[in-house]
Amino acid sequence: MWQHVxxxxxxxxxxxxxxxxxDRTGITVEALGESLLTQFPEFEFNRHTIPFVSxxxxxxxxxxxxxxxxxxxxxxxxxxxxxxxxxxxxIIASSSEFVFDLFGTFIGxxxxxxxxxxxxxxxxxxxxxxxxxxxxxxxxxxxTLNHDDGLSPATFHEADVILVGVSRCGKTPxxxxxxxxxxxxxxxxxxxxxDLDHPRLPEFFxxxxxxxxxxxxxxxxxxxxxxxxxxxxxxxxxxxxxxxxASAEAMFHNENLKFLDTSNxxxxxxxxxxxxxxxxx
Length: 281
Prior knowledge:
Structural class: alpha/beta
CATH class of the largest domain: Alpha Beta
Strand content: 5-15%
Shape: elongated
CATH architecture of the largest domain: 3-Layer(aba) Sandwich
Largest sheet: 4 strands, parallel
Oligomer: single chain
Distance between the termini: 48 Å
Number of domains: 2
Number of strands: 8
């Protein structure tokens, strides 16, 4: 039956409903499920996350919601689950023909490989198992927020990395991601027209040269992003964006500074590249 459904969807379907079911926040199941769904660009997925399914009663409610969506669509939804409780997972498994148990798929082979039973404890991935590591992440995030957009340059020396580039090229979201996911203290500095009048970085970067990393972006994309923020004036014109990007990249070359074009790269990829290029851990 499922072969028939897949053959049918390949020829006639555009939309497909997807549920991400978790006994905690849903972050892990979303990340895993989304990485799989990216392999099917011809579909438009209607996504629903059901977090905190921590009891069989909650699982019954979630299963009913999934069945309702299936009846409305005329097709069983795709369901990605990371439930650790076997009774709850069994209930979710009955809700659709296409339930992908991302936890159960791997935990059995891991138990065999390690010769030990798993704890089957919910929320281990995002729980506060290591308070020191959690506090380090919070310190990194606070540092990032306090050193955003050129704030507090006198303490840039405390940063693990300093991102530099023209306004709206992706510095702030990348810094936040570095803080949240890598516990890296990241600062960023926007290159102004005064900075770009010179071929070198501002003088206070001299002492922080080794931890400085440049970001650039296609002028056309930069212009589009800036228009959403400020449609009027020279700031968002294509000519202004081209001039700023060209000056910034010339500065990076003059400084022999590593830099990355963020035009078609996700925040996750930008961050991973920076961590690799600067040898951060």
